[in-house]
Amino acid sequence: MNVQTKGVPALRRTSLHQELADKVRELIVSGELPQGTKVPERELCEMFGVSRTPLREALKVLALDRLVVLEPNRGAWVSRITVADLEEVFPVMGALEALSGELACAKITDAELAAIRVLHEEMVGHFEARRLAEYFDLNQRIHEAILAAARNETLTVQYRSLATQVRRARFVANMTDARWQQATDEHAEIMATLEARDGPGLAAILRRHLQNKLETVREWLIANGQAG
């Protein structure tokens, strides 16, 4: 078959329902759509100026990500976070984080290191000013920058398939001052080990960092009767 491509417009990389899935995902991760509540489809349609059809397609995507549960004749519900689920996800994510660290140490450029250093210093500034939302944003960008420096598309796909659940768990649990200090100290270790290009050392720190995060969330869920 001889297909002529000259003059054919490029397809959009994302469809409407995928864009909607991204927007609703952020509402769930941030807690604006609380766990265990019914997804307000009518309100979301009005908010985003769309019909029910693309929204329901978006909800199917989020169901695959285990962020919503689709119930026949009852609509979509925001899934609950359980200790059992997190104990499955976090070890896998820890392994992916460790691998991204090892690969990044072998491949990262001086320019990339400098950029991550800037993000780290900004994040520390938010910690000192007790700006938690801004701190979380920089924290996520640092982990994503390390992942990007690993230069492994397969790893990136697997990592991002679980990252939403980890981010959501982080938003759910209240972080004590002691745990926040610990997390910031761990990021200082991450930064120093990355700059030293110590792959095994960075892998170990990243695993421990994820394990400590899991402990924080687990303790909060149990203390608040939400262990599942």
From TrEMBL:
GO terms for molecular function: DNA binding; DNA-binding transcription factor activity. PROSITE patterns: HTH_GNTR. Keywords: DNA-binding, Transcription, Transcription regulation. It comes from the Bacteria. InterPro entries: GntR_C, TF_FadR/GntR_C, Tscrpt_reg_HTH_GntR, WH-like_DNA-bd_sf, WH_DNA-bd_sf. The keyword Transcription applies. Pfam families: FCD (PF07729), GntR (PF00392). Gene3D superfamilies: GntR ligand-binding domain-like, Winged helix-like DNA-binding domain superfamily/Winged helix DNA-binding domain. Residues 14-81 form the HTH gntR-type domain. The keyword Phosphoprotein does not apply. This is GntR family transcriptional regulator. It comes from Roseivivax isoporae LMG 25204.
